[in-house]
Amino acid sequence: MNRSKPEDGYPSVDYLSIRIPFKAQNRPSKNQKHAKLNVIYYREKVPLSPVLQHLEEAFRQVRAKQMEFVKNFPVVFTEPVLNFEEFGARIGVSSEAVKAALTEKPPQDYIAMSKGLVRKDRLEQIEKKIEEQINLKGRLSLSEAAKTIEADGVEDAAGTLEALGYRINWHGIDAEKAEVVRP
Predict the structure, then answer these.
(1) Which end of the chain lies in a sparser environment, N or C, as judged by fewer CB atoms within 10 Å?
(2) Model pLDDT, residue 64
(3) Domain boundaries in the chain?
(4) What is the 3-state secondary structure (H, E, C) of 93-156?
(5) What is the pTM of this model?
(6) Main-chain phi, psi angles of 47, to 5 degrees
């Protein structure tokens, strides 16, 4: 957090590009007006809970504005794989807001994953490669499937397998022993 002292003399916090004024004051002053400020009164020690509640509310408001911005952002996706974090950085909003907005209503021909969007034709290509490996070897370990999926630019191997309808049979905790099984 970037702390600064504005012209009015009250401390403020710059949080996600929005100024959130607040004042922690030892005792109320009869002559001061705080119509635009959220005042937190304290004795000897500033209470953390009200400050955190104020910041959480401000974060919710900023996130809602960012989600609305992403929903109304005029963009046509052409990439086969779109990472939420990278897209958020490109347009200047948080990855959480991008994820929330785009998973709520994914663009046409895209499937929402945990870290991004994947175009349906890319998922079909991945499915063909996995099927070929299963047919060739008779079985496919989770680590081999993950390498195949990551080679196509998708970071979430388990989510991709789930979206394609595959199951993972675990034999202990070793990913080399875990098998990818057809639906």
Answers:
(1) C
(2) 92
(3) 2-66, 72-118, 120-181
(4) CCHHHHHHHHHHCCCCCEEECCCEEEEHHHHHHHHHHHHHHHHHHCCCEHHHHHHHHHHCCCCC
(5) 0.67
(6) -75, 130
